[in-house]
Every structure is written in structure tokens, then in C-alpha cells.
Sequence to fold (193 residues):
Amino acid sequence: MQLLVNTTRQVEVAGPALADAHRAVGRCLAGPIAQALPLESVEIQHVVGASEGVGVRPGHEPIILAVMRAGLFVAEGIWSCVPAGALVPHQDGESLGSIPAQGRTVIVVDSVINTGRSIRRLLEMLRPAGAQSIVVSALVAYGPTLETLVAEYADVTFNIARVSQRSYVGSGSTDTGARLFGTTTWAGELGMV
Fold:
């Protein structure tokens, strides 16, 4: 995991290469999530004929809530390993609308947890929605914030690729979203709007 995460930190990795690195981290983060899903036996077609396999129990398909915009590619990586799930992009400040969380695992995915503000808002919206379990997955989280979140939300599983002891909010060429989407030189990303 450390090698994959290291790639995402390198200044020369941006755009599609950075998005691919985020997806690779997401695929690694998916392992513990997939193991915790309720499964049932299903018939599958094996190369030698019908066989027994497993599938996510109907009605328990996970919801992968991608915090936009930088959480999208980590969420896509998780989704590629949990294909029974639904990928739902979420803009900060929006309601959850009619997401059918009741009885399901909801996976909240962001690339960076710095202050925890966005994650807290989503967790407070998800709690009354009746999710069976809630998982927060991120590429990196600021250590003191993560410790606080774990204490505040003991019923939530935190699945973090890297914990940093340094806090910063990027802008322009250091903003994760801008690096992912190739907008590091846009006036809005540089705070000139």
C-alpha cells in the first residue's frame, strides 16, 4: 500500500496517471470492505460447467458515496472490486436525497480527510438513514483529525491508506482535485476569482 500511496504524492504524477494511482489505492482499500459484506451462495458458470460461487445478499448491495470531486477515483477503484455496489457521486452541501441506505453498507470515500468537516456532515446525514454499517475510506487522513473522528464515531469503520501527521489545504498545483482533473493553472483553483 505504501508504494501505491507514494505514487499519488509525487508532483510529476497528475491527470490520468494520478487518477489511475487513486483507483489502484481504491482497489486495495476494497479488500476489507468486501470481506465484511453479507454473502450468499449462488450458482455460477465455471469453465467446467455450473458451480457454486458467492454473491452479495440481495438487498445488502453496498452504496459507495464518492465525495466529489477528488474522492471519485478512489471510489471507482473500490467499486471495481465490489461490482454489486452502486456508485453515487456526492457534492459537499447536498442532501443524500433518496439513497436507500436502510440495511446496507454505505462506504463514504474521499481522497483526503484534513479537517473532517465533509465527512462529519455526511456521517450525520447517514446515521438516521438506517445503514447496517458505515465505512469511511480515504487515501490519506490527517492523524489528529482521524483520531477525533474515530472517537466521535465509534460505530463507523475507518479504512485509510495513509495517515499523515501534517495538515495542509492545497490550492492550485498542490490541490488534489486540481491535480487529478488538470485544472492546476485555472484562476479558480489559484484563488484569483
